[in-house]
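Q: Structure tokens for this one, please.
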Amino acid sequence: MDLFLEQLPIVVRSLNVGFIQTLKLFFITLAGAFPLGLIIAFGSMSRFRPLRYVTRLAVWVIRGTPLMIQLLIIYFFPGLVLKNPIWGSGEAGRFLAASLSFIINYACYFSEIYRGGIQGIPSGQTEAGLVLGMTKSQIFFKITLLQMIKRIVPPMSNEIITLVKDTSLSRTIALQEVIWAGESFLRGSQGISGAVWPLFFTALYYLVFNGVLTVLLAKLEKKLGYFE
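A: Here is the predicted structure, written as tokens:
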């Protein structure tokens, strides 16, 4: 017990640093993937066939391959193949590569959710808006978008919860997020060697954060219930 109490401050301090990195990656991914996903959704629904086919092919490739592979390719490809190590070897470069990988991956998943939400709105509402003299942009923002948000909250919630856990994959390129920090005590790189119990604390960080997100997203879904 004395050893546990002695090691606890070191573990908590290290996990806090890693968790901050996890939070940064989480929020940057959402900030980039939400708008990019909507743009990709418009591309996949475009009447211009070449754009629609290229967009859907890209979404198929991203959704059909593991995020871990995408991380490794985006981080190592410029340096090993193009001989242009744009990311560098520092923590900032690894974070930038991880952020780009996560944004692209989740934007493709979000695009399919957006597309399903938009196409699920009855076409009669669009026709009614045109009859009332509304422009297509007015119809989208004042009629379609609000109803789409209600429809996509449940599947989006699942993706957001998954994102929290997927951030752990960034350790494959040595990004020092919370699980990397927990594993460091097994490797002995934090002055504590062979300790497994910090991993249980690591799981607790994810559990609490996911619990908070679940409550907030449930409240959002309930607040949007006026569309029903």
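A few notes: The CA atoms of residues 68 and 136 lie 40 Å apart. The longest helix spans residues 2-44.
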